[in-house]
Structures are given as C-alpha cells and as structure tokens.
Amino acid sequence: MKAEMLDSGVIVTVCGEELVPLLDGGLWWPNERTLIVSDLHLEKGSSQAGRGIFLPPYDTAKTLARLKVLIQNWHPCRIISLGDSFHDCNAESRMSETDQQTLKELVDLQEWIWIAGNHDPRPPANIGGHFRETLNIGPLSFVHEPGQNPKKGELSGHLHPAAKIRRLGRSVRRRCFVGNNQRLILPAFGAYTGGLNITDAAFDGLLATGSTAWVLGTDQIYPIAVAQCV
Amino acid sequence: MSASLPQIFVNWFESRGWNPRPHQLALAKTAGSGESVLLIAPTGAGKTLAGFLPTLIDLHQNPDQNRRSIHTLYISPLKALAVDIARNLEMPVEEMGLKVRIETRTGDTPQHKRQRQKLTPPDIMLTTPEQLALLIASKEAELLFSGIQKIVLDELHALVSSKRGELLSLGLARVRRFQPAVQMIGLSATVALPDELRAWLKPQIQGEADNLAELITVKGGARPNITVLDSAERIPWSGHSARYAFSHMYESIRDHQMVLIFVNTRSQAEMIFKELWLLNEDALPIALHHGSLDAGQRRKVEAAMSASKLRAVVCTSTLDLGIDWGDVDLVINVGAPKGASRLAQRIGRANHRMGEPSKALLVPANIFEVLECRAALDAAYEGAQDTPPVRIGGLDVLAQHVLGSACGAPFHEVELFDEICSAFPYRDLDWETFEQVVDFVATGGYALRVYERYARIRKTEDGTWRLTHPRLAQQYRLNIGTIVQEPMIKIRVTSRKKSGRLGRGGRVLGEVEEYFIDGLAPRDTFLFGGEVLRFEMLQENEALVTRTEQKNPRIPAYAGGKFPLSTYLAERVRGLLTDHQQWHLLPAQVRDWLELQRGLSQMPGRDDLLIETFPHEDQNYMVLYPFEGRLAHQTLGMLLTRRLERMRARPMGFVATEYALAVWGLGDMGRAIAAGTLSLAGLFDEDMLGDDLESWLAESSLLKRTFRNCAVISGLIERRFPGKEKTGRQMTISSDLIYDVLREHDPDHVLLRATWADASDGLLDLKRLSIMLERVKGKLVHKKLQRISPLAVPVMLEIGREPVYGEAQDVLLAQAADDMMRDLAKGKRNES
Asked: A80: closest CA among A128, A126, A27?
C-alpha cells in the first residue's frame, strides 16, 4: 500500500528533504516518518449555528475519518497540524462526544503537534498533543502563515491554495500544494475548506518565479507550472 | 349596456367612446358576489381593466371600508408591469373622480414609504410575489390584510409554473386565513390546462375534488398571419446563428415600422444585433435588449420603444411578458420556437389590439428547426397550447414559508399544515413531510441532532412555534424569494494607457455569469452589448475589458437554448416526418433532405424509436431520434454510455441536441446489435432509471447546481450579495462541499429530497425520459448503415461544438502537466 502510494505521487524536495504530497491533501516526510496536514478547520460546519445557519454537522467526522485513513496507511511517528486545526476557540466545546473521542484516540497514537493558527491561537483544552507557535526539525520549519521573508525550508498553510487551469475552453480548479525547493504551502485538509486561487493577491510575493503547483487530481497529482495557472 | 355597471362607469365608458366588452361586464358582476374567477383572454382584450372593475365598483359603492387594511392587492411577475399598471389605472380613477389611493410596492420603493404603507395602506397595492412574502413575514400582516376584498393576479400562467408561484400560493393561503371571503381574480393568456389555474385560485381540501374558480374565456382575436422564412439561401445543417437570413431580416425591418426580433439566448441576440448593424446602411435605429445589460441601458431602450423612436429591437425572453412598448407591426422569431404557447405569446406582441391580425415571421436557424417552425405554425393556427403544468410545491420553498410564517406570528403546526394544504401546489403534502420541514427550519433537520440549543423556532408551552430571536426575522428578510442568481461578474470597460498598463475606471456595460468569465483567458475576445471586447483581467468581482477592432470574437457563444422543445411540438414534428402528405409544405431543400433519408435509411415513426448505426472516421456511431429535448437526451446519453460500457461496447462519448442523440465508441455497436450480442431491448429498458441513474448521480456534479438553489431558497445557506463577497473565497463554504457531505452522511435529508424532485423535473427531465422509454418499448427500430445518414448529419456536426460528455476533467490537468514536463526537458537540453 505504502509503496503504491509513493509511486502514484510525486516527490518534492525542499532544502534537500524529500517530501511526498498525498492525494488527500496531506504531506508525508519519509525520513522523519512525519505526516503533515494543514487547516483542518474542525467544527467549521457548526460555527454559524449561533446565527441560525445550520450546515450539515458532519464535517468534523468526515475530516477525522480521512485523517484516520492516512494514519492507518502511513503509521507515522509524528503528526504536525499546521494551524487552523480548529475553526474557532469554541470549536472544541461544540464538537460531539464521539468526534472528541475519535480525535483523542488519533492524537494518542503518536507524537502530535498543534501549530498555532489565526483561528486557533490557543491549544485545545482536552484533546492532548503538544502546542507550538512554530517548530523546526532539521532543515524544515513549520509555521501557519507563510512569511514574506521566510526561512529556507518553510512549510506553511493558511491560504488554502487552489490552482485553476484552462484548456479547450474549459477550466478545472483543484486544491494544490504550491512552492519550490525552498518552501511549500499546503492545501487545506478540512471537509468544508474551500480553496483560494494561487493567482490571488494574497499570494503576491510568496511564490518565487518558477514555482510549481502540485495539483490534486482524482487519482493522481499533477505538477503544473504556476505560470500556467490562471 | 348592462345593469352590472354603476351609472358613473357607464358614463365613463361612453365618454371614452368605448363599449364595455362582455367579459368586462361579466367580471363587473362579481364585484358584489366576490366569487373568484379566472379570466383567459388574448392580449389586447382589455384584460387588466376587466380585472380591476370589481375593485373600482366596490370602492365606489362602499367607500368607507377598513382604513387599516389594503382593499385590493395586485400581483404581477414583473416589477415594471406593476408600475405600468399603476399608471394606467390612474386614468379611469381620475376621470370618474373615484376616491381611490393606488400605490406600488416593489424592491425600488424607499424604506420610509414601505413603512408608511404598513401603517396607512393604499386601497390598491400593486406589487410582486416577493413583496407579498415580505408583508406576510411582518408583524403588521394580520391588520394589513384584515379587510382585504380582492386579489388580482396578472399573467397567472407565467407565475404558476415557477417556484415563485409556489411561494405566492402559500402567501395567498395565509391572506385567505386572515380574510376567508377574499375574491381572487386571475388574468391569464390561453393555457393548456385551465382547470389547474382555476383550482390554483381557490382553497383546496385534501382528499376532495378540486375546488374551481369561475371561468371566463375570451376567444382569440384575429387569426395571426405567420410565415416561415422561405429563403433561396441554403439553410445550414446545424448551428444557431441564422446567418443566411440576416439580409432578409434587415429588409423586413426596412419594410415595417417597428419590429421585435426574438431570439432564445443572449449570445444569439448579441450576434444578430452586431450583424444587423453591419448591414444597416440606412442607419435605422436598431436596439438590443437582454437580461445581462445594465438596467439603465434597458430602461432607455424601453423608453425609446414607447416613444416610437426605434425601428427594431433584438431581444430575448425579457420582452416576452407584460408591457406594451410601442406599436409593433412585425415579430420575427429566430431559431426554434420551442413551444406553441411560447410562440403564441411572442407573436401576440405584434399589433397588440383585438381584431387586428398579428404578423410574424419564423426564421429557422438550421434544417431541423424548419420542421419545428412548421409544426409551431400549424399549432398556432389551431390555437393549440402547451404551457407547462402547475408544479408540485417544492420543500425548499415550503421551508422558507414556514420560517416566514414564524417571523409574522407564532403558529400552531396543525393550523399551519391545513393552511398550506389549501394551496393548490401543496394539496398533497403529507403530515410527516411537513413535520420534517418544520424540523429543518427549527434545527436543520439532521439525523445527528446537534443544533437543538441554537433552534431558530421553538415550540412553547402554549403549543405554538415561536421565533427564538428577532434578529432571525431581519436575516430572513434578506434571504427571501425563490430567484437564485448565478454568481455574476460585472463587465467594466477600460483602456490601455501608453505605458501599456490598464486604466482603472470606465463604464460598467452589464454583467455575465461567473462561469463564462471562468472559461476566458486574458486576451480572449467575446461579444457583449453589441461590441467585440477583449478580456484583460479579473479584478475583485469585475472583469476588466478593453474595446477591440477585431471583427470576429474568438470565444464562440454558447448556443443552446434555455427551454427544451415542448413535448407537444416534438410530437408534431414526429408527425410531420411520418406524414409524407404534408411534406409539400416544407421548403424544397428540406424535402430533398427527407427524401434522401427515406431512400438511404428510413424515417423515424410517430411512436417508434429509430436507431441508426454506422462507422465514420475510425469510430462507430449510434444515432437515435427521440425528439424529447436536450435535457432528456443528455440524461439518456449518460445512462446509455454507462450501460454500453458494461456491455463492453466501449463507448467514448456522446452529444445531445433537441432532436437527436449520437453516441460513439470503439466497439462496432451495429454489428453487435445485428448479431444479437448487444440487446437493444436490454439497452433501452426502463430499469435504467433505477440503479444506473442512482450510481451515475452519485458521481455526477450535475445535481450540485440544483442543490445550491434549494439550499439558498430553504435558508440553509445565505444569499451572496454583490459587493459583500470580498472576504475571499476560502472563507465561504461552497455548496458543493456541503452537498457531498450531506449526501454521504444524511442521504434522506429533506433538502436532498427537494433537490431530487427539482432535478428530475428540470435538469434531468426524468419524467419525459421515462414516458419516452415506455412509449418505445417493443418499437425499437435498428437500421445498420454503411455510412452516415442524411438525418444524422446535423447532430454529427454538433460534435466538437457542444460539450461532449464522458471525458474526465482530469484530462485537462494531465495535459497541463505534460506541457510542463516538456518545457522542463527542453530547458535541460538547452542547458546542456
């Protein structure tokens, strides 16, 4: 299983470290047996309930189920969640008991690190795991928001990158990893998280010339030059 | 003159030199009895005046009625129509010296006036269905309608076949509870099933026979004068441009005072408008009118029409209904008429006076449309009607109404249920479904009950459901209505400075659907507002464009029509094909084409389904001719390719038109059918509407758009308001994601039911498909040919022009990735 998934994907090298972007939006770092995900936005669905907007309350369960599959497939020693793991500071209290239980069990399976995000600047109260503003491991650094003058080897999230291409008068828009051999921005992993086009002004100055988008297709990841995206 | 008219009215008719018409007198007679009535009359019959006679007479005879209540509510589908009617009504009121206050209430009415209208309402309020819904949801509703006597519903035939009609029917049921004796007066053009409209006007009781309003029918005016363009030019095999007919159309404009040119799509309107101006040596004032143009621009065109300053207007269905703009002496309908009633309505725009014949010219854009035009012409002469039936009320609309009811006042669920069932579209609603809808409104209606503490409405100790917070009422008012706009992008024209940079400012020309802009690359050119524009860039929610000298836009216009061919016309076209006797009515080139088909293959029969198979350029084709409209054909195409795949016929794709469906693949389907290894009966078995449909829909994104509409109407997600979307796309939750999650985790949810009901009626056209499959059972005619048949040529030409199904979007991604790999490889070679 593992070998096949490695095969299907592409390898991205950041600061000499080989990283494997996964179809589901996670990132696998084989040398450290570390799984990296970003922007889970747990309980985004219930976040508007106070205003009388009742979105289907199944997003947390779905996100956790996908995460569980990744953990079962890769058996990581460590998981790093790159911030905005919870949609807001009350998310934990809105989460159903079942979902809380599932998450706790997942967290206990290996080392788990929550990076602080703008949606979740504080650690969760009862879930467990370590909480860090930022983190450095080897040549890589882990942070929620991509910096304008980043350290080499920065892995970040926050922007929910999505790439759009046009061909034959039609267009396709998909979530993507985007970056180069110095830095990488991860797609959002949560079930209700949309994408922001990498041509949006929010990405200005973040993507060096010659950057690549690793676009999540249905059963393959497609490396596409950022310059080709619209 | 009749005794039903008070003397002052008799005098007024005389002073204008008019004789009251029989239907006007018949309506006047109902002023006292208050009996609800449906008036069916052709345009120009004095329908509106007739509709208001009971009101004017009653107000004249009983001047001092309930001052805190509206006396008469007038509802029309168009805001502009309400304003226009108000103006026209002032004349008799003023001339007879009646003390009647008439006011409009639309989205344009200023807030302070709306407030005032609630406190001191006018006698006659002219408004739209959405405004009624807003009134119902206000605290003043009961008082405002406590003394209502009459409700006049204009263009009722147009209202009842949409979700707006469903919401309106619920609003009227509510008004009826405030004032059970209220008289409903429906005004309608001729319809296929008048009894449905009669029942729509009256309260219904579940399980009992329909309660019908009185019916007054005015026979049609003079027989219209319709011709199908018989051109010496060759009629194209396919396409929708009608280019061959432009000079003929221009001549017609020259020969008439005022011509309305109706087309089916905005892009057709754009193209014809531009081409007519290229021919316009006499500089005749020819204008353009369609829904995307800036509203100010449209108002200008309408005013110029009224002032007889124009000679022709190219327009879409925006001018189908309603107001008389000037004296039109010719209507040209370009392209397929789609339906007999639709055509009759358009033709009626010419010579809008009783007794004078309307004159119309039908211009088919391709050879199949000649048949459709001919069939529509025959139908028009017979006065045949094919208006769509009244829709069964949607659950999304019901959810909106339930919340609106709670905004107005607390409700008892049993009372509300009875009230809702009295509305014709909801007469068959069952209690369980109703409870689910109430539950949805209260807490989302999910199997997982997590929103209890946030409930929007809650059952209190006295047994009524109450709104939990007044803020919800405000929110509700912003989301009211059943018209869900496609996300639109403004088109702003700018210019390039000398530096090559784009200027900032410039005029807004109008707006187009976001998906159209999504398909454009910078520097692509397209036609809009009669000009060729170059797309430069997307800036926030505006598309910046520049004007260009280029003559031919690069992006071809989307050619499909919004409305599918009506079942009735389809049947007539099939009849025409089968009936050799009638062929002499067709142009010679069409006749030759059909004769050729008869010789080389055979004609489709009236009730059977002709299936031709032939090889063509390395592929094997199967072409069928169901004549059931594009939507049903698309659904059939999806299902057939799935089945063919399972039967190992290796299908590759298909294309659907209004008339035919072509499927192609690698396997020789013709031989397999002839050899009996591919069973036609099995292929077309009705069971394809079961599991195959289910599994296809599970993968398809087709239902997502329908879901989005239902989600907005039901209040699950909020409307997007232009200008308030800058928070960035990643923050709003797309309805597609919600749909996926809901389908997976709560497949029986009430909104999915609503979506399914909507799609099977609309986008998928399942009803029509299932009737067709039933009809052709045992009557599948296979014709194995060595080469393409004459009848197949038009649909084969659509391949490459129309979207082809069966190609995954990932193909596009793969190509882009390949390009990059190639570039990289090239770069490496250059380096070395």
From this structure: A27
Tens digit of each residue's pLDDT (9 = 90 or more) over B42-68: 776 788 899 999 999 999 998 877 788
* Structure tokens belonging to residue B560: 């499909």
* Homologous superfamily of domain range B7-217: P-loop containing nucleotide triphosphate hydrolases (3.40.50.300)
ipTM value for the complex:
0.89
**Residue to substitute from A53, A198, A226, interface B, most B β-carbons within 10 A:** A53
pLDDT in tens, B464-493: 999 999 999 999 998 888 877 666 778 888
How far apart are the C-alpha atoms of A219 and B1, rounded to whole Å? 80
Give the torsion sign (CA, B429, B435, B438, B440). Answer: negative
- Whole-model pTM? 0.86
B contacts of A90 (beta carbons < 8 Å): none
Q: Which pLDDT belongs to residue B734? A: 80
Reported as a pLDDT band with limits 50, 70 and 90, residue B501 is confident
Which of B245-249, B393-397, B412-416, B630-634 is predicted with the least confidence, judged by mean pLDDT? B630-634
Q: How is residue B135 written in tokens?
A: 């009134």
* Closest to B311 measured CA to CA, from B328, B295, B335, B334: B328
Could you give the dihedral angle defined by the CA atoms of residues B44, B46, B48 and B53, in that order, rounded to the nearest 10 degrees?
180
Hey, how many other C-beta atoms are within 10 angstroms of the C-beta on B412?
14
CATH topology of B7-217 equal to that of B225-382?
yes
Q: What is the mean pLDDT of residues B385-391?
A: 86
Go through the domains of chain A in sequence order and give each one's CATH number: 2-228 (3.60.21)
Name the percent of chain B lying above pLDDT 70.
91
Closest residue of chain A to B812, computed from CA coordinates: A167
Q: Provide CATH code, domain B225-382.
A: 3.40.50.300
Q: Which is more confident, B767 or A68? A: A68
C-alpha distance from B717 to closest chain A C-alpha (Å):
7
Residue B84: C-alpha distances to residues A41, B80, B116, B124 (Å): 52, 6, 22, 14
Which stretch of DSSP H or E encloses residue B619? strand B619-624
Contact in structure between B422 and B203 (CB atoms under 8 Å): yes
Which positions in chain A touch B810 (Cβ < 8 Å)? 172, 217-220
Count Cβ neighbours within 10 Å for each residue of B129-156 and write b for 16 or more, e otherwise: bbbbbbbbbbeebbbbbebbbbbbbbbb
Chain B contact present for A192, CB below 8 A: yes
**The amino acid at B41:** A
How high is the pLDDT of residue B47?
86
What pLDDT was estimated at residue A200?
Answer: 85
Among B222-231, B239-248, B314-323, which stretch is predicted with the lowest mean pLDDT?
Answer: B314-323
CB contact under 8 A, B730 and A167: no
| Min Cα separation B488/chain A (Å) | 17
Q: Report residue B557's pLDDT band, with 50, 70 and 90 as the boundaries.
A: very low
Q: Chain A: residue nearest B448 by CA?
A: A57
A:154-183 residues touching chain B, CB 8 A cutoff? 159-160, 164-172, 174
Helix (H, G, I), strand (E, B) or coil at B656: strand
3-state secondary structure of B733: coil
In three-state secondary structure terms, B324 is coil
Beta strands B312-315 and B259-262 are parallel
Q: Is pLDDT at B727 greater than 50 in this prediction? A: no
Domain residue extents for chain B: 7-217, 225-382, 488-547, 598-810
Model confidence at A4, in pLDDT bands (50, 70, 90)?
very low
- State which residue of chain B sits closest to A229, comparing Cα positions: B816
Q: Which residue of A has its CA nearest to B446?
A: A56
The b-or-e profile of B553-584 (16+ CB within 10 A means b, else e) is bebebbbbbebbbbbbbbebbbebbeeeeeee
